[in-house]
Amino acid sequence: MNEVRKKLNPRYATLDFLDDSANFATILGYASIVGGILFLGTTAFLFYSLPFEELGQKFGLLNSMYYFTILAMLVYISSLLWLGYSFIQFSNLVKKAIKSKRASLLAEAFSHLRIAYICIIIVTLLSIFNKAY
Amino acid sequence: MIEDKTAIIDNFDSEEGLLPSATRASIVRALEMGRVAAIIMGSSLVISFLLSSSIGAGVMLFALIFNLLLAYPVVRLYQATQKIPKSFEKEDEYLLHEGFSNLKSSFKLHAILVALLIAVLIIFGIPSLIAIALS
């Protein structure tokens, strides 16, 4: 087993995996930002094209739920945008950490990943709420 | 190129083992949050499957396939959150390597699925919303 481990030398692969993770995080980040902008654009278009009350009727919302839904949508959109930003920052900092040989940058990168996961939790909880509603 | 990267890790672990303790703590905190996110995402998939099962058999089958696709990167993320903190406790580089492999594949699959979802949103979602607004 030790021989196999020596041959594989996990150190090379670990850094390669970290590097690849940063690349995929960039894609995820940009995708989240595009998704957030699309949602924002669609919402803005709906608000622009329809009167306030008519919009509520079309989507079958009660008056009390209407304002809450608007607030939830705003939180959803801002979480998506923040998620994208955090992923891009994570990716940049991981690449910088590898380049500049500074482990503190890696710590900072993972703190951005933590924020990204918090945003994912918010987005997922809002999706669950949407499905249940 | 690979030798350069080994030098970087050697620089990282020159005094405190695999990685400096502050960096380890940051990674573990991020992954703890990742674990919570994985659990919530998994629950969301189960809820969406249960809700779709009440609509009809065809929808249920589609939802099953779709949710299984979405569940795989979540499982990989959960595995990463288990392996990476353990690798720091045991000072096991091989486990760290496996953990980062899981994290990478989770990112990769999520990136593919999110890109697909955005494509579907552009193709179907936005025109239907515009149609609702114009009707």
Overview of this structure, please?
The complex is a heterodimer of chains A (133) and B (135). By secondary structure, chain A is mainly alpha-helical. Chain A is 92% helix and 0% strand. Chain A contains 5 helices and no strands. In chain A, helix 4 (63-100) packs antiparallel against helix 5 (103-132). Chain A is elongated, with a radius of gyration of 21 Å. Mean pLDDT of chain A is 81; it is low at 3-8. The model of chain B has no long low-confidence stretch (mean pLDDT 80). Chain B is an all-alpha fold and 135 residues long. Chain B is elongated, with a radius of gyration of 20 Å.
Structure, briefly:
The complex is a heterodimer of chains A (133) and B (135). Chain A is an all-alpha fold.
Alpha-carbon Rg of chain A, integer:
21 Å
Number of strands of chain A: 0
How does the major sheet of chain B shape up? none
Q: Name the chain pair with the biggest interface and residue counts per chain.
A: A-B, 49 and 53 residues
Order of helices and strands of chain A: HHHHH
SS field, number of helical segments of chain B: 4
Low-confidence stretches of chain B: none
Give the beta-strand count of chain B. 0
Roughly what is the average pLDDT of chain B, rounded to an integer? 80
Shape of chain A: elongated
Report the major sheet of chain A: none
SS strand fraction of chain A? under 5%
SSE string of chain B, helices as H and strands as E: HHHH
| Straight-line distance between termini of chain B | 59 Å
Structural class of chain A: mainly alpha
> What oligomeric assembly is this protein in?
heterodimer
